[in-house]
Specification:
By secondary structure, the chain is an alpha/beta fold. It contains twelve helices and 13 strands. The strands form four sheets. Strands 10-9-11-12-8-13 form a six-stranded parallel beta sheet, with helices on both faces. A three-stranded antiparallel beta sheet has the order 1-3-2. Helix 10 links the parallel strand 11 and strand 12. It starts with 14 loop residues before the first strand and ends with a helix.
Length: 336
């Protein structure tokens, strides 16, 4: 291993060493990563030093960090034994959640979603999606368990991404017949009119994050075909007026930019056999000054209604670049 990770001076009595042995040398190579980059990432995040000797890994550092590192390495090795890859996101997830999960059973009507061994997994056509934080895990459980769920928190916490993943999973399993993704087009007025093209071409730039999420979970040709068949709809919030959305998985993204009237209109579209997810960030309201956010009003009015869940995320749940969490925390400190 590289000598770039230094353990800060500390009480020698608080330092410890652990030696882990891995029987399959091929899997151990995958665990370490190319040029031991996986081990380097673990070292940096946990403040330990890892040495590789044959089929053993020796961990040096403070007692608590060494124990945590053991859990992380064992969890990643078990992942490899199950035939799964180990990527940087998997390392981050294991560090955040390793050893903290318990087995969960969620039953909703005829649908049984088993999270074996506490591992919450969302199956899509292209990939298996796993929550990386406890808040994300609770959010996914509520998406399966409740007919209406709110995900509220800063950018980069996976609110929309996980909601779309669950929608695709339920669509593949036949639990719903359609996926409907909506966003408020805040500038939908004169400014949109100046853009070239028909209405779809005008609003597509606002919908692009939803297309991006879908393309992560479904093959491109299948996504295009389902959109053409209207089994997947991606549309501005205003297009929901007058409809009853039955047997559908419905997601409203950027809900903080919906007015109170728009939010009420959207929530009352819920039909039989449908699920509805509302995601938003209260710190990024783009509505004109003096216009109340529908997300704020919905949170205040609906919080105590059964079968409506509210999940909250903080900067600690950001799963984008580490700088994103630092930026969010800096702005929150300034506002405070």
């Amino acid at each position: 291993m590289s000598d770039s990770v230094l353990i800060p001076p500390t009480d020698p009595e608080s330092l410890s060493e652990a030696v882990l042995e891995f029987p399959d040398n091929r899997l151990l190579i995958d665990l370490c990563g190319e040029y031991d980059r996986n081990l380097a990432a673990i070292e940096q995040k946990l403040g330990v030093h890892i040495l590789r000797r044959g089929n053993q890994l020796s961990i040096h550092g403070e007692t608590g960090a060494v124990a945590e590192c053991e859990t992380v390495l064992r969890g990643l090795y078990e992942r490899l034994e199950a035939g799964r890859d180990v990527e940087s996101g998997d390392i981050d997830r294991e560090i955040r959640m390793g050893g903290a999960e318990t087995e969960t059973d969620i039953r909703d009507g005829d649908q049984l979603e088993m999270f074996r061994g506490g591992k919450v997994e969302i199956k899509t056509r292209k990939k298996l999606v796993e929550p990386r934080t406890e808040a994300q895990k609770a959010y996914v459980q509520n998406l399966f368990a409740n007919e209406m769920a709110f995900g509220i928190g800063p950018a980069g916490t996976g609110k929309t991404y996980l909601a779309v993943a669950v929608g695709v999973s339920m669509f593949i399993d036949g639990a719903v017949d359609r996926i409907i993704l909506a966003r408020p087009a805040v500038e939908a007025g004169e400014k949109l009119g100046y853009l070239p093209g028909d209405m779809k071409e005008k609003v597509d730039p606002y919908m692009q994050p939803l297309y991006d999420a879908l393309n992560d979970f479904l093959p491109g040709k299948q996504t295009a075909k389902l959109i053409e068949e209207k089994r997947i709809e991606i549309a501005p919030l205003a297009f929901m007026r007058g409809r009853t959305l039955s047997n559908a998985f419905v997601v409203l993204d950027e809900a903080q930019n919906a007015t109170s009237m728009q939010m009420k209109m959207f929530l009352t579209r819920l039909g039989e056999g449908s699920r509805m997810v509302i995601t938003g960030d209260r710190s990024q309201v783009d509505l004109p000054r003096g216009v109340s956010s529908g997300l704020h009003d919905a949170e205040r009015l609906l919080k105590h209604i059964p079968k409506i869940s509210f999940n909250y995320f903080t900067a600690k749940d950001v799963v984008r670049h580490p700088l994103v969490a630092a930026i969010i925390e800096a702005y929150e400190a300034e506002e405070a």
